[in-house]
Design goal:
This protein is 23% helix and 26% strand. It folds into two domains: 153 residues, Roll (FAS1 domain); 95 residues, Immunoglobulin-like, CATH 2.60.40.420. Strand 4 and strand 5 form a beta hairpin. The longest helix has 24 residues. The strands form three sheets. Strands 2-1-7-6-5-4-3 form a seven-stranded mixed beta sheet. Strands 9-8-11-13 form a four-stranded mixed beta sheet, with no helix packed on it. It has a four-stranded mixed beta sheet with strand order 10-15-14-12, with no helix packed on it. With 307 residues, the protein is of the alpha+beta class. It has six helices and 15 strands.
Amino acid sequence: MRKSIVYTFVACLLIAAMPYSVSADASEDIPANAAATGVHDTLVDALTHAGLVATLQGDGPFTIFAPTDQAFADLGIDLSTYDTPEENETLADILLYHVYSGNVTSSEVTDGLSVEMMNGDSASFTVVDGVVKIGDATVTTADVNASNGIIHVIDKVLMPPADDPFDGIDCAVTVGLTSDGYGFSPSTTNIDAGQTVCWSWTDAGMAHNVKQVDGFQSSTYVTGGVTSGAPATTVAFHHTFTENQTFYYACEPHIGMKMHGEIIVGDGGVQPASDSGESEDAPGFVSSTLVLAVLGAVLFLGRRQNQ
């Protein structure tokens, strides 16, 4: 069943790969329309790479949201990195997030409308001053009729909502960002040894990361230390602390702005005081010396009285 849905979806998207113009023939089937491709080359390449171009025509109606070549370029999708069955399934999931089973013209879209796409995830619309958006993508060309559906051109690739990045992970604390984006929240936290800290932010206004430094508000990074990787606007990183310590970290791009944090694990790694002997100024030593002095004085007076 899923396979037929994918093929139907691909058939509709092949329509979307044609150059949209008033001369488009809505009565043509998919092979004829696909022959006129030229505006959505990357989309067709993605479908080919995912092994989805296996149908000629699907049953409609469907509403298709077709990203342009520039939309794919802006996202930086590298199809060569999708080289395993799991990665190709992810690619298919992205493509399926661009189709709705049913006819929806632009005039029928209302602000706040939410629909379930073919991959099972929901997408929401906004309408402001006549501009229709699905997710964060703007519909740039609307209501292009094809033999088995409606095509809307969009300026961004729609990404399905991410699954819980911490599924199966017990986050004792989740660290996010402050409202201004220049701090970690909370910046300091206490956990027990064996617990896990998670760092999470999505679509932040600036790229951030977590990188271990060697002390409080230090600008010296620990060689081979804990890090979330390169700065990014979306981060889902976790680390389990197995021993008592104080873990100091910073955001690389904003370390000059004192964007630091610390995790105190257990007692923070405080070393116990040494009991290898008492100094001469220790109370025990002073008390012993005083007792000996008193005994000496008593013995001395005793000798004088006996003389």
